[in-house]
Amino acid sequence: MIPLATLYYLLCYAWQRLPEPAVLQATEAAPFHRPLELLTQMLLHAAGQLLRTGLPLAFSTNEQETKQLRGRIELVPTLSRGLLPQGRAVCTFDELSPNQPLHQVLAGTLVALAPHPDLPLALRRLVSQLRRRLPASVQPLAPSAAVFAALRRHRLASAQAFLLHICELIYKTSLPAPAAGSRGRFADFRRDERLMARLFEQAVRNFYRREQRQYRVFTETIAWQAEAAHAPDLALLPTMLTDTTLESPSRKIILDTKYYAAALRPRYDQQRLISPHLYQLYAYLQNLRPDPGQALEGILLYPAATAAVDVRYALGGHPVRIVTLDLHQPWPGIAANLLGLIAT
């Protein structure tokens, strides 16, 4: 299982945010034992930064019974309540307020975390303190899948998007009770291979976007080099979408990340490469048409778990490398290994 310090770097790169020295120092001062403790510390730091700069305000619609007319008078509730003889009316009006959905979800997450039994007492106290620092007008909103889906459609600034990612991961892994028939939660989400595979892929791709300038980094849809008697039949072919493509005028690298317990599997008493992964990369290389003068190559990247692997082949005339990345070493070593993979 990867160290929490490495997990912190992966989360930051996956969510396009540079690691913060303050969080790393807090991790070293009071070593965390569970991912929830790390996520809580990240939430405290990110929300604290947002509060220091001031919560962004936006217009929200309010309905209020008042003696002073504001905005639009709502006649139906005003008349039904018999307010006019009292010199009152129900009015709706817009006003600038921090009571926005993201801040409400933050408040709701803090409310849920404050009594969480898996958090140390010191962290729970910090969570409660941060909740009290939020403006009184911010009403807590209980986190839910629907709430996060709606918030993801907003065009949030980088700091706000980072905060949303943290709240959503806390919700998915630590807050809700598993629904009937669901696959449930992992007490330590580092054991959730599907979740970690997505984070690993995003972290590696965004690492290359931030830490090197030689290649353009993107995901790419590859068209099948196929023909059919009936053109509509071509639409039945599965989509080929790369995890990461790195492209320069002279070189194009298709890099597929695979978050598996091992890069090799036993077969007939021998260790073998995982054939579907190799077939997939081979299909990408055979169907991709690089620009003139571009050398095309492929990389399969696994986290090192049981054994280190670094083998090279020429498949279909293209260089292919299958290699593991040791996630238990300090981050500078991980960064150096990643940059070394694409060095010319």
The total of beta strands comes to 13
**What is the number of domains?**
3
What structural class do you assign from the helix and strand content? Answer: alpha+beta
SS element count, helices: 11
Strand content: 15-25%
Mean pLDDT across all amino acids:
90
Q: Strand order within the widest sheet?
A: 4-7-8-11-13-12
For the termini, the CA-CA separation is 32 Å
Helix-strand topology string: HHHEEHEHHHHHEEEEEEEHEEEH
Pfam families: McrBC (PF10117)
Protein name: Restriction endonuclease
InterPro entries: McrC, McrC_bac
Would you kindly provide a brief summary of this structure?
The protein is built from eleven helices and 13 strands. It has 344 residues and is of the alpha+beta class.
Main attributes?
single chain; 344 residues; alpha+beta; Trna Endonuclease, Chain: A, domain 1; six-stranded mixed β-sheet; three-stranded antiparallel β-sheet; 11 helices; 40% helix; Restriction endonuclease; McrC; McrC_bac
Report on the architecture of this protein.
- The chain is an alpha+beta fold.
- It folds into three domains: 4-54 and 103-188, no CATH class; 58-97, no CATH class; 194-341, Trna Endonuclease, Chain: A, domain 1.
- It has helices at 4-14, 21-29, 35-53, 75-80, 101-113, 121-133, 145-152, 158-174, 193-211, 275-287, 331-341; strands at 58-66, 72-73, 89-97, 216-218, 221-222, 240-241, 244-248, 251-257, 264-267, 270-273, 295-303, 310-315, 318-325.
- A six-stranded mixed β-sheet has the order 4-7-8-11-13-12, with helices on both faces.
- The chain is globular and about 90 Å long.
- Mean pLDDT is 90; it is low at 180-184.
